[in-house]
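Hello,

I think I submitted the protoporphyrin IX containing FE job twice by accident. Can you confirm which output corresponds to this input? Input:
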Amino acid sequence: MERAAPVDESAEGAAEDPFAGMDPEMAAHPQPMFKMLRDSMPVMPVEHGVVVTRKVDVDVVLRDPVIFSSNVDAVDLSNIRPLIPLQIDPPEHKKFRKLLDPIFAPREVAKLEESLNAAADELIDTFIERGEVDFSKEFSTLFPTRVFLGLLGLPVEELPTFLKMKDGIIRPHMVIGSTYASAETKAYQRATADSIYAYFDSVLDQREVERKDDMLSRFLDATVDGERLTREDILDICFLFLIAGLDTVTATLDCVFGYLSAHPEQRRAIVEDPSIIPAAIEELLRWETPVMGVVRIATEDTELAGCPVAQGQSVMIMLGSVNTDEADLPDADVVRFDRDVNRHVAFGGGVHRCLGSHLARLELRVALRRWHLRIPEYHVPEGHTLVYTPAIRSIDHFPMEFTAAQ
Ligand code: HEM
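Support: Only one job matched these inputs. Its output is below.
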């Protein structure tokens, strides 16, 4: 398919991580900071652009993907071409979504429920006898990765390779113990990016020879408006899936279980009536907003709420702030599982709204159902404070003590 140009490494404003260096206390409880920004400086100038916190201003940005582009300058993940569909602007973007949306439609995703139940149970089996677990290392990191391997028709033995590739892009500094944005970190991230292209290239070679009942085989045969995806297109989709589809679910599981560990009454409500799980997930997606924000690049000089934004500057949209904006939702600071309507933006908004939201919701529902059925009582050991990472709010070390159901 026709596509955007390769990544220009020298691009002005090429993104640094806007959340690097965020205070861990703020990452754990960002809602007061969001309120303070909305009240005092809703469009706040920062080094390379602005941070936007009110729903009314964020709507302006998300509704105009031409002026506020999601192109390769928005986020640098060491990819050599734009990631598909995230870094493709309209009108090309629509062609890719037309092809991908049906693969991730609710009806398609629902077919996976049984295998997801089995994956969740198998993981729980590995620690249920112990009465304690590192939730992050033994469940929330592994579960979405196993789901994805299943979608791609890859064996579970590939799990460590997947985790290495994902972490090498998302948190390279933590993998090799170097400083964020140092030359060493950057080199490791680049090498990881090369290994991702090579990995999927080799799997695609195998699928060219013999199709399987998996997503990669579907990509090879898919057409939109009579056009097939090129090999590069498929690689650029796979690269994005690895980055967008694993950590986000892990972080959401961490945030949801972190919240429920600290709020036993709401945890018990779920155990007593599992039918409230879908509503609880929506409310915790809103309140916790595990993906704190997304970034756009201004393609021309413009302004937001009177604040000038120059061409090439970044616009950091704080999704977590939109979700707790009392101007849109009067009781936004109350966490309740009985909302009739919950129009949160935890999956983003506008044309780039999350492609995998139905899959993510199914993964979350399955995880919460299986977990609370088998492990109704759990808490973080006394004296331990959970530390959340900024940007994508996961918890690297999440000790939990629990009592399994009889
Ligand atoms: C609870 C889990 C998840 C959360 C919170 C989440 C959140 C988001 C957000 C906020 C965006 C918008 C990015 C932007 O506007 O810059 C997004 C886009 C995207 N997400 Fe998710 N996501 C989740 C799970 C998944 C999964 C499981 C997949 C698997 C395919 C996925 C694939 C994508 C893709 C491909 C895009 C780009 C869509 C486009 O540009 O048209 N996400 N996600």
